[in-house]
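hiii so my PI (J.) wants the whole complex modelled not just the main chain, which honestly fair. so below is everything: four entries, each one labled with what it is. i double checked the lines twice but i was tired so who knows lol
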Amino acid sequence: MTATAVPPRPRSTADPGRPGLGALLEDLVRAHRPTRALGSVPGSIPHLAEVDHTRFGIAVAMASGEVFEAGDAAVPFSVQSISKVFSLALALGHDGGSGLWSRVHREPSGTAFNSLVQLEAERGIPRNPFINAGALVVTDHLIDAVGDASGEVLRLLAAPSGRGAVNEDAFAAELARSGRNLALAHLLADLGNLRNPADAVVHHYVRQCSVEMSCADVARAGLFLADDGVGPGGRVVSPAVAKRLGAVMLTCGMYDAAGEFAYRVGLPSKSGVGGGILAIVPGVCAVCVWSPRLDAHGNSIAGAAALAELAERTGWSIF
Amino acid sequence: MTATAVPPRPRSTADPGRPGLGALLEDLVRAHRPTRALGSVPGSIPHLAEVDHTRFGIAVAMASGEVFEAGDAAVPFSVQSISKVFSLALALGHDGGSGLWSRVHREPSGTAFNSLVQLEAERGIPRNPFINAGALVVTDHLIDAVGDASGEVLRLLAAPSGRGAVNEDAFAAELARSGRNLALAHLLADLGNLRNPADAVVHHYVRQCSVEMSCADVARAGLFLADDGVGPGGRVVSPAVAKRLGAVMLTCGMYDAAGEFAYRVGLPSKSGVGGGILAIVPGVCAVCVWSPRLDAHGNSIAGAAALAELAERTGWSIF
Amino acid sequence: MTATAVPPRPRSTADPGRPGLGALLEDLVRAHRPTRALGSVPGSIPHLAEVDHTRFGIAVAMASGEVFEAGDAAVPFSVQSISKVFSLALALGHDGGSGLWSRVHREPSGTAFNSLVQLEAERGIPRNPFINAGALVVTDHLIDAVGDASGEVLRLLAAPSGRGAVNEDAFAAELARSGRNLALAHLLADLGNLRNPADAVVHHYVRQCSVEMSCADVARAGLFLADDGVGPGGRVVSPAVAKRLGAVMLTCGMYDAAGEFAYRVGLPSKSGVGGGILAIVPGVCAVCVWSPRLDAHGNSIAGAAALAELAERTGWSIF
Amino acid sequence: MTATAVPPRPRSTADPGRPGLGALLEDLVRAHRPTRALGSVPGSIPHLAEVDHTRFGIAVAMASGEVFEAGDAAVPFSVQSISKVFSLALALGHDGGSGLWSRVHREPSGTAFNSLVQLEAERGIPRNPFINAGALVVTDHLIDAVGDASGEVLRLLAAPSGRGAVNEDAFAAELARSGRNLALAHLLADLGNLRNPADAVVHHYVRQCSVEMSCADVARAGLFLADDGVGPGGRVVSPAVAKRLGAVMLTCGMYDAAGEFAYRVGLPSKSGVGGGILAIVPGVCAVCVWSPRLDAHGNSIAGAAALAELAERTGWSIF
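here's the output for the full assembly
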C-alpha cells in the first residue's frame, strides 16, 4: 500500500442551506448591531470618523457560489488594511514568495501595528506583510512586478462582483496625512529595502486602502482564499499559496490581537480600520463583517464579537 | 429549516491505515535523521548537550487508538517546554481560564522566548502562557489549585502510557542554573503577579520540564488535544478548552517562530529545547517528533522539517 | 618656557563668610519648605511614606571645615541611593576602576532607574554604577575587596561626624520588599556578572541604603568629593578619582533626569528616594539638601528647586 | 553682611602664555596624529570617506583673543553635527528656550544617535537637541524665527573669522542620502512636532552640516560658549544661556558616549562625524580638534584621546 492511503484532512462541501445560515446571520445582526458609539474611530482619517456608528453588515460567500447577506451587507465601506491580503496574494502569485520573503518576515509583530521600533531593530526587514512597513514592501514588490500596483489590487477586489472603486476624496485626504507611512517608506529606503521612490510607494499603498466595497462583494473577492486558490472568476493563486495566506492571516491578520482572535474565533482573518473584517473558513466559505467602531487594537468591536458567535454556533473554528 | 441546518466543519474520522502512514513515517526518518551536528543545543543545560545528534524519532497517536512509530520513537527524551501545554490544560481545567487569563495574555511574544523586556513594559502580565514568565504564572496558578503542580503535570503526561519520570540528576543540574527563571519569578512577585514564593514556583516549573518520555508516549499524552478534550484515559478538558489550547499552540507554541511554523507546517504545535515537538491534527491525531539539534529560535531543526513534509504529504494543515 | 606655564583652572579657596551663606540658606528654607504634600513617596518602602512632608533641611560643608546649616539640617533621614556614591568611591579606591569598569558602563541610562530592559539588551553590563543593577555590581565588587561591604560604606559615611546608623526596622521592611533587586541580581548572575550569591549582594545593597544621617553629616561625608579626594578624616580617593566621581555624578546621578538637572543646577549630584540630594561644588564645598516628596523621576522636588536657586545666586555652576 | 558675600566660583583669566600652550599642542600632534586608518568613516557620506586618515589639527581660542594652533589646524573640514550647537544657540537666543524646550527634552539619549525608537515611544518629543530628531526640531524652530535657518547658522559660524562655506558638492551628495532624516522629519510631522514641510527642514539641516571650516575658525566661533556668551564679534547669547549650552553639551554632546567622555575629559563638547570636536573650558577658552577616523559612537578617535591628554595636563576639567 502506498502513502496515498493516508487521506487528506476532509473539508466541508455541504451546502448549509439558505434558511439556516440566513437566519443565523439575522440573529447576529440583532445581537451585535451597536446602539451606542463605543470604542473609537481613527482620528487621522476624517472620512472614517463620519460613518454612522450603528452600521453593521455581514455576508457569507459559499464555495458553492451562494452568498448570504444580512444587515448593511450591501453598503460600501472603506476596506483599508483588508486590501493587504489581496496585494500579498498578487505579490506571491508572481514569484511564489521566493523574492518577497527575503524582504519581509512572517512573524506576529507583538507591538502596535504601525511601530517603527521593530523595523529599525531588525535592519529594515518588516516583521510581517500586514503591518504597515511590511505592506509598503509588498506594494514596492508589486510595483516592480506589474507597474500599477493599486490598480491591480482594485481589479482583483472587483473581479467577482464588478463593483468596488477608490473613494477619491478619501484618498486625497488620507494621502495628505501620510506622515507615518512616509516615515516608514523613507526608513525602508535608508535601510536598503525599497526599490521605488518613497512617495510612489506610499501613493499606491494609500490608494489601495481607499477602495470602497460592500461586505457581500468583499466576501466574494476573498472566496479564493477558502477554496484552494480559486475564486468566482477562476484561479488566483495555487492551493499551496492559498493555505499559506491563511496561515499569515491567522498569525498576523488582526494587528497585535492575533492571539486573542485565534483564541476567541479560530478563523484566519484580516481587519481594517474602516471596521471591516474578512474571515476564511477553509474549504467552506469567506465571511465579511463590518461595523465601524474599533477596539484599542484597531479591530471592529461588533465585527469581532459577531465572528466569535458565528464560529461558536457553526463549529467552523479551524482548531 | 432551523439554524442547525448549518453543518459543523467536518473532521476526518477515517483510519489512514497502518501501512500508508507507517511507510510515510519511515520515509521521514530516512529523509530527516541528521548525519551532522548542525544547529545547537542549550548551553545552560548540560545533560541536553550530551544527547547523540543523530537521534530522530516520530510517532503518531490516532484518535482510533492506534499509534504509529518510527526511528527513535521509543527513546525517552527531556520534554522541557512541551510540558507547558499540559500544565496549561490543567490550569484551564480547574477554572476554565476565568482566573488565569487575567494574569497572562494570549498574544505571540514577538521577542526571544525568555525576554524580561515585555514583562516589565506590560506591568507583570506575561505575553502568553508559553514564554517562561507566562509558564511561571501558570505554575503558580496550578500550585494554588492542586498543591503539587509538577506532580500533577507528570500524572497527566504519564496517564495514557504509565511511563514518564523526572530525571532527578537533570532536574538538580537545571535547578542550579535557574538564574533567569528566578529573576523572572522575583520580578513577577515585585509586580504583584505571583502568589507563592519565587523559589517554590521555579522548583515546580523546572521539575515539570525535567520529565523524560518517548515520542510515542508524548503523542499518546497529547491526543486529548486533537480529540475534543478526551484522551486515552478519559476526558481531560472540555471540547471548547481543547480548541482554545490549539489556538494558543498555533500562535504562541514555537517561541518567536510561530508565524514561520504556521506558514510551513500549519499545525498547532509546542516545542521544547530538548528537541521535541508535539503537533496536533484536530479530529485526527497527535504527532510527536524528536531530534535534539535546535535552530536559533530553540526549535528542533530536523523535527520542524519532518513535520513540514508530513503536513504537505498528508494535507493535514488546518489552513 | 615650559608647559607648566599653562595654569590649572583656578578654584575658589575663599571663605564665603558665615553671614552671607548662612542667610542665603535661611532664604532657601523659607522659599522651598513645602506646605503641601505635592509629588509622591516610594510606595514600596513603608517607612519613607511616613515622613512629614514639610521637612526641609540644607547644609553646606566648606573645604575650610566650616559647616552651614538651615531648616531640618540636623534631622536624620534615609540616605538611600546617596550611599551609591560612597560604595563607588570605595570600589574605585581599591583598584582605581581597572576591574570595575569592565563590569559596568559609565553612560546615562536614558530609562527609568530600575529598568531591566537595558541590562538584558547589553548582556549583563549595567549602564552605570548608579542605576540599581550597576549598584549591585559595585556592591558585589566591594564584597570581594573588603568582605563587609555595607559596613565599610557606613564607616565611610560616618567617619567625619561619628554619626550615622542603619535603621534596622527600615532595613528589614525594605529587605522583605526586594523583589525587583533580587530579580536584577539573579539576572546579573545568569548573565555572568555576579560573583557572590544574589541574596548576599542584595542584603548588603539594601543595608547601605537604610543608613540614616542628617544633611549636615552627609555634607561632611561628601566633602572629599569637592576637595580633591581629601575629607575631614584624611584622603579617601586620589584627586583623579575624585574628579571622575564628579563626572559620573553629573551624567548619571539624578536617575533619568540628569540632563535636566545639569541644565538647571549645573552641579555634580546624587539623589536618593529618601528625598536627599548630595551636590558637589568642586574646590569649594559639598551641599546636602533634604525634603521627602519626590518628582516622577524619584528626585526631591523641593531639594532640586533649592539647589537651582543656590547655584544661581552663588554662581557655583560648573558650566 | 549680605548674601553677596558669597563669592562666585572664580574662573581663570590668566593668559597661559604662548610658549607653554603652543608647545603642549605640538606635543599632542606628535602623540595623536594617526599613522594607520583605525576606526571608520561614515559609509553614507562619500566625501567624508575620502579624507586622508593622517589628518590631525588642534586649535585653542583664548578669551584674551589669542589663538594657538598646531598640526592641520588651518585645514577646512566638514563640521557636521558641531553645527548643532550653533543652531541651538540661535534658537535659544530668540526665545530663551521658552518655546523650544516644550518641543525637545534635555536628557542624554542612551541609544544610538539616530534612533527612531525613543522618538516614537515619547510621542514626538526628541530626547535632546543634539540627536538628529532634536536637531530637526531646532532647525524647524529656527526657520520660524529667522527664515533662512542654515544661512543664519553659517553667518554665526563665520562671524569671527570671515571664513566658512557650504561645500555644495558634499551638500548635494548628502541631501541625496537623507532617507533617515526624511523618515525622522515625517515622523515628527505625524506626531505634531514639525511646523514646516519635512523636505524644507531636512534641506536646512543638511546644509548647515555641510559647512566646512578649519579648527582655528571653529574654535574662534565657539569662544562665546566659554566667555559668558560673548564672542569675538560681540554678545551671542546671555551668560545664563551660555552656561546652559555647556550643560547640554556635557550631557548630550558626544552621542551615546557622553558619560564616558565626561569621565575621561571632563569638558563640555560637541562632536561631528566629520571628525571634529569642539570643547569648552568655561572662562578660559574654546578648543577644536579634528581627525577624521571615528569610533563606534561616531566620535573622532584621535580627537578624543588628544582632548583627554590636554585636560589632564592643563587641569582644565570642570570636575
